Amino acid sequence: MKVALTICPGWTRIKPPLSLALLAPVLHAQNYDAHAIDLNNLLYHASREEYKAQWEQENEFYWTNPAFVSKFIRDHKQVIDTHVNLILDLESPLIGFSVYYPNQLMTIEIARLIKEKDRSKIIVCGGPQCMPELGGIELLRHKWIDAIALYEGERTIVALANMVEERKKIDYCKGIVFKKDGSLVNCGPQEAILNIDSLPFADFSYFTLQKYANQNELPLLASRGCFWNCAFCVGKLNWQGYRSQSGERVFKEVVHQLQKYPEVNFFSFHDCLINGNISMLERFCELVIDHRKNGYMKPIQWWCQAVIRPEMTTVLLEKMKEAGCQRISYGIESGSQKVIDLMGKQFIISVASEVIRNTHKSGIKVVTNFMFGFPGEEEDDFEQTLEFIERNKDHIDELLPVEGLCVIERDSRLYKEAKHYGLYSNPHPHYWKTKDGKNTYLERFRRFEALVSKASASRIFLTGAYKKNIDSKKIFLSDYNNYCSSIAFNICNGLIQKSTGQEYAFIWEITSQCNFACPYCQAINDYPSSSPLKLLPR
Length: 538
Known about the structure:
Strand 4 (122-126), helix 6 and strand 5 form a beta-alpha-beta unit. The protein is 36% helix and 15% strand. Helix 1 packs across helix 7, helix 9 (278-293) crosses helix 10 and helix 13 packs parallel to helix 15. The chain has helices at residues 18-29, 39-46, 66-75, 77-88, 104-117, 132-140, 154-167, 247-260, 278-293, 314-322, 337-343, 349-361, 379-392, 413-416, 441-457, 467-471, 473-486; strands at residues 2-7, 33-37, 94-98, 122-126, 147-149, 176-180, 183-186, 217-220, 223-224, 243-244, 266-269, 301-306, 325-333, 365-370, 398-401, 461-462, 497-499, 504-506, 534-536. The strands form four sheets. The chain has an eight-stranded mixed β-sheet with strand order 2-1-3-4-5-6-7-19, with helices on both faces. It is of the alpha/beta class. The two termini are 29 Å apart.
């Protein structure tokens, strides 16, 4: 049986999609004919010239705008129909979509077009945006989405393929939430894959590397999850605990990909943290250094994300540099120890300074992330962040100001423990404010601008999508003011706060079109006319 896997715009087209490359070989190992289709990149090359800039990472917010997505589809109707037919021509009864926040709207639209042409197709969505707490239930409100996959997808996609092959439909299956008799059935997660060394290497043979922005780069994953519990983070929710491959396994995959793709010389590690397992990281570096010195492999370069740990010693960092590490991105977020502790980050500010300096001195570029106005951050704390940047400006190569300022994601610890952090329950993701009224969207925006100004004055290169905040400041502030003036009449899927003078009450979820076009909203366009779908217990 054939199984089709795809990913829609807007997603990065710097390199091939790792999610599809990881799932396809697992299906092949079970004798399924898997086909990975990067619809995101195919539509980029087939799109009109004036749209191509929207594939740049800093412009991904366009794809979360329903008006933009509708216009893109209207302007590319024939092109999109052609590519939908390419998927249908595979004659795969099961079609899987990889879904992230930026490509959610396009995924829904492509799924709709597929179902309109062939209602027998079973469409399953997986990926970070499919967690029930983060938007998966909203996806299932659309009649063309049959199920969402929970957590990592290898065991689930195989189980679904087995079921569809045998029964021509989906029913109770661990690892999914699916529709049955007008309700949603949560089947619970599959067991986590503890020995991830046993998984096959990522397979990029479905993609033409020359069609990507970085033709010599491939993404890899050496570990899963994170063992920290940062209050604002939901990045680890899609994983079931932290697990790491061995240094030998990571090295073998690098060698495999180099042999298969001689033009490749750069790898980007998409781990939440590359240094969760220090012995793995050190062993990988040693193997690369040894084989390169002995002429068994060519020099490589790579990039990774890491957390601040005292184990990131000069010796290890110099070993990483010798093994080809070019950049490390550290999530510093604040220069105040008080705020770091409130966030749940497990490092000391002085250690952060030391690690940054040692990383830079080893010849590895340092990228630092900062956010603004985390609950509990007072003006003095923010000043400490500016002072941290001043002290370390000679050792920070790039600074990434979080363009979302401080977003409160559903199911983050910050969201679930809102009252503990001095917030009203069920806080708005962007426009939340503390009960004392001191920490508001406007104040966070001011701190964002102050940090950008500080970095510019210190001649630190600014990176990321921060510039959209500056370029669209008037629009963003106008949207905020509109939200504030309209809040009493606003209905937004149970997320919106409504002041009652003493506390905050919340609008219940409705089953008709929302009556307010919030700029951050994913705009559910297909509510059923009857009562909302009910999530049944496992």
